[in-house]
Automatic annotation (TrEMBL):
<dbReference type="InterPro" id="IPR001128">
    <property type="entry name" value="Cyt_P450"/>
</dbReference>
<dbReference type="InterPro" id="IPR036396">
    <property type="entry name" value="Cyt_P450_sf"/>
</dbReference>
<comment type="pathway">
    <text>Plant hormone biosynthesis; brassinosteroid biosynthesis.</text>
</comment>
<feature type="binding site" description="axial binding residue">
    <location>
        <position position="419"/>
    </location>
    <ligand>
        <name>heme</name>
    </ligand>
</feature>
<dbReference type="GO" id="GO:0004497">
    <property type="term" value="F:monooxygenase activity"/>
</dbReference>
<dbReference type="InterPro" id="IPR017972">
    <property type="entry name" value="Cyt_P450_CS"/>
</dbReference>
<feature type="signal peptide">
    <location>
        <begin position="1"/>
        <end position="26"/>
    </location>
</feature>
<dbReference type="GO" id="GO:0016020">
    <property type="term" value="C:membrane"/>
</dbReference>
<keyword id="KW-0732">Signal</keyword>
<protein>
    <recommendedName>
        <fullName>Cytochrome P450 724B1</fullName>
    </recommendedName>
</protein>
<dbReference type="GO" id="GO:0020037">
    <property type="term" value="F:heme binding"/>
</dbReference>
<dbReference type="GO" id="GO:0016705">
    <property type="term" value="F:oxidoreductase activity, acting on paired donors, with incorporation or reduction of molecular oxygen"/>
</dbReference>
<keyword id="KW-0560">Oxidoreductase</keyword>
<comment type="pathway">
    <text>Steroid biosynthesis.</text>
</comment>
<keyword id="KW-0812">Transmembrane</keyword>
<dbReference type="Pfam" id="PF00067">
    <property type="entry name" value="p450"/>
</dbReference>
<dbReference type="GO" id="GO:0005506">
    <property type="term" value="F:iron ion binding"/>
</dbReference>
Length: 473
């Protein structure tokens, strides 16, 4: 009898061990070296809903926490309708991005194509991508080389900040969006902020953004359906402006980016419309999020950093006794401001991850990635990895005050698709901060955190209480 009980118990124990070994792997890789992981229970969706569950953008969220601790920094899953390798490993992420078009290729889910359009830079690959990317680069390089660009940033900053004069509260995200959007439409289309078309296009872009992360049902009235319609409206507005300019009417030549674009004979007219949309969207949404997260982290966590920032900008302002505008030299002097912006990018994770697919079977660091699988390099997990960054969850701009550049950060991606607007976003944020810290004190009014949806949003729009301050205080 005793033997029977013992045999039964051993059997149950063995079954348990076998069962558990299926879920809790002892080693990080399968025998065929495809990383361990779970494909989820839902047909098609797999684990997509848990992966997309909103969480504070300065944390990695419960999905990545549980999966990384169970399976390691590289694991398999089933996301956005495909078997997927998720990478939270910096070396693997860089390997993926640098091997674009060789081993991997940009591959955003099909429903996103429906909204961005088939000629969007995030959708096109190969030679078409190279051609359109060069146009985007020519835009960002021209901006950087024009003193008028810096003047425009400053003019819009001052006008935004002055409009707060009689207020004691503003919804910061709305203000930041208006500011970055007005700047982009000025650079690209020569539109002034008071042009009624400007606020219509901005409204359409906001509808467009909501559709990007919605359930892709093309039914009128759903966020996805509304986004597709909003895109069509923006396209037809841009086409109408292009037609007017194309007529060559006297006085219509503005010497803005649209003029440069219209003189380019190697791109189709739809390609031109698409690049305008890419630059407007890429240029305003992400930069305004960077500004909002910077204001949030400074207001919420770091009075010490805010004081240091103020003293840096006071010194710069004192050099400008005659009230001259900021220039490149000033920008270069904003050393602590750069630390603050870099740290806000690390903690705020404006872009959490990007989409790729494997073009071939790939082996890297002992892992096997099968051809055709989706691959997601996740930047936020690297930015917030405590084994790579000391006190990773803390907003600490001083971590950037080191001789060697801080490693293991990639807020703007990498490889042949590295963001062409990185420097523009930083300049805009730095100039805005200059006037903000010299003009106002602010406190974050209500608990409102940056949430990764996965694109970052503040639920209440980051309401802040503001108080005009004396420059000498
Ligand atoms: C904080 C601000 C910004 C962040 C965090 C950011 C982040 C990124 C990232 C991660 C990518 C790579 C996407 C991928 O590999 O799939 C990207 C691409 C891109 N970004 Fe940005 N971006 C920012 C600002 C801007 C600005 C200001 C512009 C334009 C003026 C811009 C235009 C673009 C364009 C056109 C691409 C596509 C590049 C290509 O596919 O070759 N971005 N951005």
């Amino acid at each position: 009898m005793g033997d029977l009980v013992l045999a039964l118990l051993s059997g149950v124990l063995l079954a348990l061990i076998l069962l558990l070994s299926n879920f809790v792997p002892a080693r990080p890789k399968h025998s065929n070296n495809i990383p361990y992981g779970s494909m989820g229970y839902w047909p098609f969706l797999g684990e997509t809903l848990s992966f997309l569950k909103p969480h504070q953008s300065n944390s990695i969220g419960s999905f990545l926490e549980s999966h990384c601790s169970r399976y390691g920094k590289v694991f398999k899953s089933h996301l956005f309708g495909s078997p997927t390798i998720v990478s939270c490993d910096h070396e693997m992420n860089m390997f993926i991005l640098q091997n674009e078009e060789k081993l991997f290729q940009c591959s955003y889910p099909k429903p996103i194509h429906g909204i961005l359009g088939n000629l969007s830079l995030l959708v096109v690959v190969g030679d078409v991508h190279k051609k359109l990317r060069n146009v985007a680069l020519s835009f960002t390089n021209t901006c950087k080389s024009k003193p008028e660009y810096l003047h425009d940033i400053e003019k819009l900053t001052v006008s935004c900040i002055q409009s707060w004069k009689n207020k004691n509260e503003v919804v910061f995200c709305d203000e930041a969006k208006k500011f970055t959007f007005n700047l982009m439409v000025k650079q690209i289309l020569s539109m002034e902020p008071d042009d009624p078309l400007c606020s219509n296009i901005l409204q359409d872009f906001q509808t467009f953004m909501k559709g990007l992360v919605s359930i892709p049902l093309y039914i009128p009235g759903t966020p996805y359906g509304r986004a597709v319609k909003a895109r069509a409206r923006i396209c037809s507005t841009v086409r109408a402006i292009m037609r007017e300019r194309g007529k060559g009417n006297v006085g219509l030549e503005k010497r803005d980016f649209l003029d440069v674009l219209l003189s380019n004979t190697s791109i189709s007219s739809e390609g031109k419309v698409s690049i305008v949309l890419d630059l407007l969207l890429g240029g305003y949404e992400t930069t305004s999020t960077l500004m909002s997260t910077t204001v949030y982290f400074l207001g919420q966590y770091s009075q010490h950093a805010l004081d240091k920032l103020k003293s840096e900008h006071r010194v710069i302002r004192e050099r400008k006794k005659g009230g001259e505008t900021l220039d490149w030299e000033d920008y270069k002097q904003m050393q602590f401001t750069h630390y603050v912006i870099n740290e806000a990018l690390r903690c705020g994770n404006v872009v959490k991850f990007v989409h790729r697919k494997a073009l071939k079977d790939v082996n890297f660091k002992g892992y096997h990635i099968p051809c055709g699988w989706r691959v997601l390099p996740v930047f936020s997990a690297v930015h917030l990895d405590p084994s790579l960054h000391e006190h990773a969850s803390q907003f600490d701009p001083w971590r950037w005050a080191v001789e060697e550049p801080v490693k293991n950060v990639a807020p703007f991606g990498g490889g042949p698709r590295l963001c062409p607007g990185a420097e523009l976003a930083k300049i805009e944020t730095a100039f805005f901060l200059h006037h903000l810290v010299l003009s106002y004190r602010w406190i974050i009014k209500e608990t409102d955190h940056p949430l990764a949806y996965p694109y970052v949003e503040f639920k209440k729009g980051l309401p802040i209480e503001i108080e005009l301050q004396d420059l000498s205080s």
